[in-house]
Write a structure and sequence with these properties.
Blueprint: E1 4-5, H1 23-33, H2 39-50, E2 54-60, E3 63-68, E4 76-81, H3 87-98, H4 103-108, H5 114-122, E5 135-138, H6 148-163, H7 166-171, H8 176-191, H9 204-217, H10 249-267, H11 278-287, H12 292-302, H13 306-328, H14 335-352, E6 359-362, E7 365-368, E8 373-377, E9 383-388, E10 394-396, H15 404-412
Antiparallel strand pairs: 1-2, 2-3, 3-4, 4-5, 6-7, 7-8, 8-9, 9-10
Helix pairs in contact: 1-6, 2-6, 3-8, 11-12, 11-13
């Protein structure tokens, strides 16, 4: 996937469909304005977008980012998040593309067939955003949802999608190269009539479910005892890889060790790794500390921005898969949970510092504005501490805890306050 979609800051003409010239760009605007985002905020964003305040966009799986010029000299960092498709949804979507003659040719010509979007929607695969899927974010101090900068980006995306419909695929998790490679593979399989079919495999989640069902219903099932700790696994190749194969023995041994450790966790009941996407699994591997060369290859092969990938790697180290969710996807928890936490933090801060502390709440995040500290409430009801680093981005700073005051205390001293 090409992570950057450059282009001049052009101000769309006025009018209901002014932000897009193609039907698929117009469909994005229709989906945006039919979403649950605040209509008044969207209106202010339209004005910013028409003034050409949105810079070139960077597309990664699940989000699109851009610098948006506001009232300050330095532009704000705005983003719009969109859930990626599951592997099953991708299989359905790719089969729908291959199933109709002309779909691939139209995509290569820079066009999005309307029938493709309809077929995918009927099959339960949304390319265009659903009413509750768009999730804007911004570095500005405006806590509206969305702020005018993120709203401007929402409209400017229509221009980006106009120029390249593959941006929709990229936001849903797979870029142009990945999609075209999969489509070519499916077409090749369709043409190979007499080729022997590979035996059908079983998804890991299904295999595990079958194994646990057998264990529960078979009274004579011996079960597993004294499983070693994941860190105790080591693996040594019985013979070195063939010369000229491009394989490195140390790399293969690292993968074997990783597989053994994952199998142990799976047999112990930890099934979280069964549901990771490819980018998430790359972050998991990077978090295990395989070295800078591996980190470089993982970044390169996932098409991720190195700094963004590094932030997710740290989030994984502090919180595993849930840590990545907290890093990437803001959500709206029960208001009572945020109120209780805010009250507890206000009381604690009164004892920790004599100066008044500005504490702002936005969705699942509580931010100490003047201290570069942020606490994020995860879907697991734990608080994840974040610090704002010199690059202006928020980085996971410590393991999560159920107590917001404990989460704050864990990183308070690091800010020098």
């Amino acid at each position: 996937m090409s992570p950057s979609v450059p282009g001049p800051r052009r101000a769309p003409a006025r009018g209901g469909r002014a932000f897009a010239a193609t039907w698929w760009g117009q469909a994005w605007v229709t989906a945006l304005e039919g979403s649950t985002l605040d209509a008044g905020r969207l209106s202010r964003g339209r004005t910013y977008a028409r003034k050409g305040m949105v810079g070139p966009a960077t597309v990664t799986p699940g989000q699109i980012k851009a610098a948006v010029q506001g009232s300050q000299p330095r532009p704000y960092r705005s983003a719009v998040h969109l859930p990626v498709l599951t592997d099953t949804q991708w299989d359905t979507l790719l089969d729908a593309i291959v199933g109709r003659a002309g779909h691939i040719a139209a995509l290569l010509d820079g066009e999005m067939p309307a029938e493709l979007v309809d077929d995918a929607r009927h099959a339960g695969v949304p390319l265009l955003p659903q009413p509750t899927e768009l999730d804007p974010d911004c570095s500005c101090p405006d806590w509206g949802y969305p702020c005018k900068h993120a709203a401007a980006l929402c409209y400017a995306i229509a221009v980006t999608i106009d120029a390249d419909p593959f941006v929709l695929f990229a936001m849903r998790g797979r870029g142009r190269d990945d999609v075209l490679t999969e489509l070519r593979a499916r077409r090749s399989v369709g043409r190979t009539v007499d080729a022997p079919r590979a035996p059908a495999g079983v998804h890991a989640a299904g295999a595990y479910a079958a194994w646990t069902a057998l264990a529960e219903h078979d009274a004579g099932w011996p079960g597993l005892h004294d499983l070693p700790e994941p860190s105790a696994h080591t693996a040594t190749l019985p013979v070195p890889p063939p010369s000229g194969s491009g394989l490195v023995g140390a790399d293969l041994e690292h993968l074997m060790t990783d597989v053994s450790a994952r199998a142990t966790r799976l047999l112990s009941g930890d099934t979280t790794s069964l549901h990771l996407t490819q980018p998430q699994d790359a972050v998991r591997i990077a978090a295990s500390g395989p070295g800078p060369e591996w980190f470089h290859h993982l970044v390169q092969n996932t098409g991720a921005h190195p700094v963004a990938f590094a932030r997710l790697t740290r989030a994984w180290r502090h919180g595993g898969p849930t840590g990545i969710t907290v890093a990437e996807q803001p959500h709206s928890p029960a208001p009572s949970a945020m109120t209780v936490a805010r009250t507890a933090l206000t009381t604690a801060l009164t004892e920790m510092t004599e100066a008044p502390v500005r504490l702002r709440a936005w969705r699942n995040r509580l931010t100490l504005v003047d201290h570069g500290i942020q606490l994020r409430l995860g879907p697991d009801a734990r608080w994840y501490p974040y610090l704002q680093e010199n690059d202006g981005e928020w980085w996971s700073a410590a393991p999560a805890t159920t107590d917001p005051v404990a989460a704050l205390t864990a990183i308070w001293q690091r800010t020098g306050t």
